[in-house]
Amino acid sequence: MVINQNESYPLIAVEQVNKSFPLPDGKGEFTVLESINFTVQRGEVVALLGRSGSGKSTLLRIMAGLIPPSSGQIISNGKRLRGANQDVAMVFQSFALLPWLTVQENVELGLEARGISRAERQQRALKAIDLVGLDGFESAYPKEISGGMKQRVGFARAFVLQPKVLFMDEPFSALDVLTAENLRGEIDDLWNEGKFPSESIVIVTHNIEEAVFLADRVVILGSKPGRIRGEVKIELPRPHPTNSDRFKQLVDYIYTIMTNPEKEVTGVAAAPPKVARSPFAQALPHARAGGISGLLELLVEKPDAKEDLPKLAERLQLEVDDLLPIVDAAVLLGFAKVAQGDITLTEIGKDFATTTILRSKDLFRQQVLANVPIIVSMVQSLREKQNGSMRADFFLDLLDEHFPHQEAERQFSTAVDWGRYAELFEYDATEERLYLPEASVSLEEATLS
Ligand SMILES: Nc1ncnc2c1ncn2[C@@H]1O[C@H](COP(=O)(O)OP(=O)(O)OP(=O)(O)O)[C@@H](O)[C@H]1O
Q1: CB 47 within 8 A of CB 205
Q2: Contact between residue 50 and residue 76 where contact means Cβ atoms under 8 Å apart
Q3: pLDDT band at residue 143, thresholds of 50, 70 and 90?
Q4: Burial of 323 (0-12, 13-18, 19+ CB in 10 A)
Q5: Which residues form the ABC transporter domain (predicted)?
Q6: ipTM
Q7: Whose CA is closest to atom 28 on ligand 1?
Q8: pLDDT at site 52
Q9: For residue 250, is pLDDT > 60?
Q10: Domains of the chain, CATH where assigned
Q11: How far is the CA of 54 from the centre of ligand 1 (A)?
Q12: CA 431 – CA 409 distance, rounded (Å)
């Protein structure tokens, strides 16, 4: 693809974009994206990296014109975007193929919608199918081909439109590890060899190595609400050498940013974090007490109770998104610290992982009461009641004011799991009521013990 260097303006500019969705109870709104300013320049590969729920896909959909922003605007190729963005084609995580159409018919579909003649459709589709290595499979149906081949069709269907920008929404995450690695490598080769049919690429991912491998620039989003924390330039020769020290340093640096939600990303000013007004507004990382305990037990056996996070994730065969909530929870509770991509247990963390069950529960209770305002507030509310019992709905309503309902329920169940483990309260799921335990320790005693 020849890049039009004469155009001085970016291919896509996102200006002061906010996006909110109404809360299900109709009272107020839930902010998904806040004050987003972002550009896609000509000739670059940019990765949007953020944890689950940081609004990456929503931002992609807004830039593609599939949904409108609540405020702010998108300028695409110099013009204000209204409706679907014709400069963009999208590759989805789920392939999104029509099962009753052949490979070639699936690839031609978008061209048909644009009113292109049958002969030209055929010729362009065959070229795109060839480019993704599916030559010979034109007449196959999706059910007859493997997951990796389905995603090749997904790429061909986007390539055939010759979009100015190709959007990829976690394109490799539904594939097994080896297939993903192969296809990722091939896509990167097409780009490096100048055969790619678009001027720029935007890839949404939560895989740090993938972002550093493919992108020239990694833009990091923070969560709740989604905002741009900053960006990291990947100044490496192409293809990015995954075994080089610099590659590993960049991956470690981004891990550190991702595991420290408040850390400023150097280079770009980060928006100030929102101050939580209510104890029910602070989002807890979704990790079970048993999971946190398991992580601490794993780490305490390592030299200096320290481990490199990318290596740990790889050894456990986990995705970043699976490991980070547990790491976050351990950090929030003061059991661990994260720096330069390493997680290290604190003295309390080491104590927790090596002591008796009874004492570890005491330590957990002490750390929860010192660091988790929602649980302190729940215990205080139970103490206000003579019978020491309250309906779960009371707390769910308070959470609903700050989170969408499903997330409010997840927050509640995480708080209940931690509170039960700390023996601060009991929960009867049938009655949907919380109770103080029989011999309840006073908050002051618990904090001081
Ligand atoms: N149409 C919608 N109505 C209400 N809430 C929505 C809607 N679309 C997205 N959200 C919410 O917006 C938040 C961000 O979602 P989004 O899918 O953009 O995040 P993401 O960073 O791409 O996450 P993931 O990596 O899990 O795909 C989530 O909490 C989601 O529940």
Answers
A1: yes
A2: no
A3: very high
A4: buried
A5: 12-248
A6: 0.96
A7: 53
A8: 84
A9: yes
A10: 12-87+163-259 (3.40.50.300), 289-448 (1.10.10)
A11: 7
A12: 16
